[in-house]
């Protein structure tokens, strides 16, 4: 079914997006000598994109030939050659540090979902799946969305299954954004937005959320959104801050979007990790479903980040664009894992309650521990991240602090400057992840108590 897009005023003027050039701010981490002229083992870490979530690329072991060609990359991705996460992980390994940087659990997902995947493989569900999702999963996603938001969506026409939320993000940007379109993001932001917006050729406008509460600066937002804005990206609960957008904030954004005919792309992968308030889906606000793409995935909710099953829910006129891009990005995603994800989404309420309880206990260990160490800890209402101010310890910026923490203390955190359009905004802040077993969290706190001294 082809549904025409309701927007007609595409702006084709191309203005390259501006993203942080971290090399100017943190030369130590972007030392050009790190980018060699030949394909040696030390070359390959430099290829990793800025990602906080994935294992860094390991140097391949089967490279036997050497060339002397300069690095090549399309201009749209030139800015993303940063290697800070690879550097942090290499440092972590070298110093035997406890890794509270990477955003994935160090424990496994539930057996009933793994059994469902094994069963699906045994049942022969192993060939290409239907492009927009196996029917059972589209139905399960629509059911879950109804339970969560009260909205009834058509599983066949309004749900698209993707390879993780990452692909939902890419398909949404590529399917609905034209070169030169203005897109508003709240900084700090998950790094996939920057890369995919760059690929889409968007003109990015950032609005900075500032500590202590990372509240939306309403006046700034009101003057930023205009009829020239194509879309705004929201991530709630929010990586890296743990902020959850309040109803008041969402309502203000919603009315500005309706007034200016702006689309909303909302990333809700941490919706089930909402601790201090109820998660609110933008799509559930009056008048918003028809202009919203809601993106989510299996990974965080079921501690199965490696499975990479995600989805985008949107009205047919937006789903069309998302599916057009998805069709050529991956076409379809892992069939047996989709069947297992359908089983996961039918988990009883008790599963979600227990998940929250467990994560709140982990959050308490880390937050109390960080306070006892001497950090200024900002509130984390959702996600499995907490952001702290490292300045009591006297290091020059977030990168220098994280380097010190890894080398001298034996704990890894993530510098937040990489999440900002202007890296200076993040120089006092670092992010810790608490998606780790309690023993690991306590051990990290003990190391910091012992070795990290306030200035
Ligand atoms: C805010 C946010 N969105 C999307 C993703 C990616 O989700 P997935 O693993 O389902 O692709 C992450 C991963 O960490 C994230 O933090």
Describe the structure.
The protein is α/β, with parallel strands linked by helices and 455 residues long. It has a domain at 111-348: Type I PLP-dependent aspartate aminotransferase-like (Major domain) (Aspartate Aminotransferase, domain 2), CATH 3.40.640. The chain is built from 13 helices and 13 strands. Strand 3, helix 6 (191-200) and strand 4 (203-208) form a beta-alpha-beta unit. Helix 5 (164-176) runs parallel beside helix 6. It starts with 21 loop residues before the first helix and ends with a helix. Bound molecules: pyridoxal-5'-phosphate. Pyridoxal-5'-phosphate binds next to helix 5.
Order of helices and strands: HHEHHEHEHEHEHEEEHHHEEHEEEH
Query: What is the H level of CATH, i.e. the homologous superfamily of the domain at 111-348?
Result: Type I PLP-dependent aspartate aminotransferase-like (Major domain)
Helical segment count:
13
Please report the total strand number as a whole number.
13
The first-level CATH class name of the domain at 111-348: Alpha Beta
User: What structural class do you assign from the helix and strand content?
Assistant: alpha/beta
Could you tell me how far the N terminus lies from the C terminus, measured between alpha carbons in angstroms?
Answer: 64 Å
CATH structural architecture of the domain at 111-348: 3-Layer(aba) Sandwich
Query: What's the assembly state of these chains?
Result: single chain
CATH topology-level name of the domain at 111-348: Aspartate Aminotransferase, domain 2
Largest sheet: 7 strands, mixed
pLDDT averaged over residues: 87
Low-confidence stretches: 1-64
Strand order of the largest sheet: 2-8-7-6-5-3-4
Q: Which geometry do the CA atoms define?
A: globular
**What's the alpha carbon Rg, rounded to whole Å?**
22 Å
**Beta-strand proportion:** 5-15%
């Amino acid at each position: 079914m082809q549904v025409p897009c309701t927007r007609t005023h595409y702006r084709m003027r191309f203005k390259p997006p501006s993203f942080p050039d971290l090399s100017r701010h943190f030369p130590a981490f972007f030392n050009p000598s790190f980018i060699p002229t030949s394909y040696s083992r030390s070359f390959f870490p430099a290829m990793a994109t800025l990602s906080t979530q994935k294992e860094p690329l390991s140097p391949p072991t089967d490279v036997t030939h050497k060339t002397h060609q300069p690095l090549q990359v399309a201009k749209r991705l030139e800015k993303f050659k940063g290697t800070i996460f690879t550097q942090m992980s290499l440092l972590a390994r070298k110093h035997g540090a406890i890794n509270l940087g990477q955003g994935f659990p160090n424990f496994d997902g539930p057996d009933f979902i793994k059994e469902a995947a094994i069963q699906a493989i045994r049942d022969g569900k192993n060939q290409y799946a239907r492009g927009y999702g196996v029917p059972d999963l589209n139905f399960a996603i629509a059911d879950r969305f109804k339970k969560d938001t009260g909205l009834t969506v058509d599983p066949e026409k309004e749900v698209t299954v993707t390879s993780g939320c990452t692909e939902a993000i890419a398909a949404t940007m590529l399917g609905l954004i034209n070169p030169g379109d203005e897109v508003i993001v709240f900084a700090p932001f998950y790094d996939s937005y920057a890369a995919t917006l760059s690929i889409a050729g968007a003109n990015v406008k950032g609005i900075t959320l500032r500590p202590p509460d990372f509240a939306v600066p309403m006046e700034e937002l009101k003057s930023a959104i205009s009829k020239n804005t194509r879309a705004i990206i929201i991530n709630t609960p929010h990586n890296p801050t743990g902020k959850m957008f309040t109803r008041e904030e969402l309502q203000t954004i919603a009315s500005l979007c309706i007034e200016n005919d702006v689309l909303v792309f909302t990333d809700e992968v941490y919706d089930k990790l909402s601790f201090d308030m109820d998660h609110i889906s933008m799509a559930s606000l009056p008048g918003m479903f028809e202009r919203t793409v809601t993106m989510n995935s299996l990974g965080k909710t079921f501690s199965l980040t490696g499975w990479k099953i995600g989805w985008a829910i949107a009205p047919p006129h937006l789903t069309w664009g998302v599916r057009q891009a998805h069709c050529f990005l991956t076409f379809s995603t892992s069939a047996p894992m989709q069947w297992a994800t359908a089983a996961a989404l039918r988990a009883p309420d008790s599963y979600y309650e227990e998940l929250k309880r467990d994560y709140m206990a982990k959050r308490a260990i880390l937050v109390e521990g960080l306070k006892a160490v001497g950090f200024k800890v900002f509130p984390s209402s959702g996600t499995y991240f907490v952001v702290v101010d490292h300045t009591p310890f006297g290091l020059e910026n977030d990168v220098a602090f994280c380097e010190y923490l890894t080398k001298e203390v034996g704990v890894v955190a993530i510098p937040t400057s990489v999440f900002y359009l202007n890296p200076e905004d993040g120089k006092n802040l670092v992010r810790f992840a608490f998606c780790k077993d309690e023993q690991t969290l306590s051990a990290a706190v003990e190391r910091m108590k012992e070795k990290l001294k306030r200035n």
